[in-house]
């Protein structure tokens, strides 16, 4: 979904459904683009996966990667599963069993600025239907020219995964040359 420039109707012109649709679509677009920055807090754009304007099953501002035999599905209100902890949407990774296959990745396509001298506190919510799946949360660091530097692993859980929604947090320290 993209921004649509709307023209104001003239006085006395009946309001049409197309105008209401354009307003709703623009508000949805803006909601998905919203990233707040309050003091030391930055939120990833569409970090709650609420907006999928093109209805392709991938939240706007994110890319998914599916590993062999796996699945990555947008779930929530009006979609397949409706068990969400915060907001109306979640991402579901499916592993069919067996070693070396299944699951996938979800990567934000809209980074945000970081400062090497300032630690980054990251929070997320997750759970797993099996306690022995390998679940990861990583941060990829980039230079000011958007060149990849490295990855910091915030969580790797392969035994004892939470079986109910659980809030997690970790602190990451950007490399000296990181800007995003």
What features would you describe in this structure?
By secondary structure, the chain is mainly beta. The protein has 1 helix and 10 strands. The chain has one helix at residues 17-33, and strands spanning 37-38, 41-42, 62-66, 71-76, 89-94, 104-108, 120-126, 135-142, 148-157, 166-172. The protein has a two-stranded antiparallel ribbon. Strands 3-6 form a two-stranded antiparallel ribbon. It has a two-stranded antiparallel sheet with strand order 4-5. Strand 8 (135-142) and strand 9 (148-157) form a beta hairpin. The radius of gyration is 19 Å and the shape is globular.
Write the layout of secondary structure elements.
Layout lengths: L16 H17 L3 E2 L2 E2 L19 E5 L4 E6 L12 E6 L9 E5 L11 E7 L8 E8 L5 E10 L8 E7 L8
Antiparallel strand pairs: 1-2, 3-6, 4-5, 7-10, 8-9
Provide a concise account of the structure shown.
This protein has one helix at 17-33, and strands at residues 37-38, 41-42, 62-66, 71-76, 89-94, 104-108, 120-126, 135-142, 148-157, 166-172.
List keywords for this structure.
mainly beta; 180 residues
Strand order of the largest sheet: 1-2
Instruction: Detail the poorly predicted runs.
Output: 35-39
Instruction: Report the total helices.
Output: 1
Helix content: under 10%
Q: What is the CA-CA span between the terminal residues?
A: 25 Å
Measured by DSSP, the beta-strand proportion falls in 25-35%
Question: How many distinct beta strands?
Answer: 10
Give Rg in angstroms. 19 Å
Derived from helix and strand composition plus strand pairing, the structural class reads mainly beta
Helix and strand run: HEEEEEEEEEE
Major β-sheet profile:
2 strands, antiparallel
Q: Tell me the quaternary state.
A: single chain
Integer average pLDDT: 80
> Which descriptor suits the 3D outline?
globular
């Amino acid at each position: 979904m993209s921004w649509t420039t709307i023209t104001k109707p003239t006085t006395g012109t009946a309001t049409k459904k197309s105008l209401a649709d354009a307003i709703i679509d623009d508000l949805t677009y803006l909601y998905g683009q919203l990233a707040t920055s309050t003091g030391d807090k930055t939120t990833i754009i569409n970090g709650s996966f609420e907006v999928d304007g093109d209805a392709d099953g991938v939240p706007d501002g994110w890319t998914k990667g599916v590993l062999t035999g796996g699945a990555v599905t947008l779930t929530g209100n009006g979609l397949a599963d409706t068990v969400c902890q915060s907001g109306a949407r979640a991402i579901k990774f499916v592993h069919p069993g067996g070693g070396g296959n299944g699951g996938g990745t979800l990567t934000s396509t809209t980074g945000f600025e970081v400062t090497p001298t300032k630690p980054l506190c990251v929070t997320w919510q997750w759970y797993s239907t099996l306690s022995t799946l390998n679940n990861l949360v990583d941060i990829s660091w980039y230079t000011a020219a958007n060149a990849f530097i490295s990855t910091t692993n915030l969580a790797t859980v392969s035994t004892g995964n939470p079986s109910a929604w659980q809030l997690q947090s970790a602190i990451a320290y950007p490399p000296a040359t990181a800007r995003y």
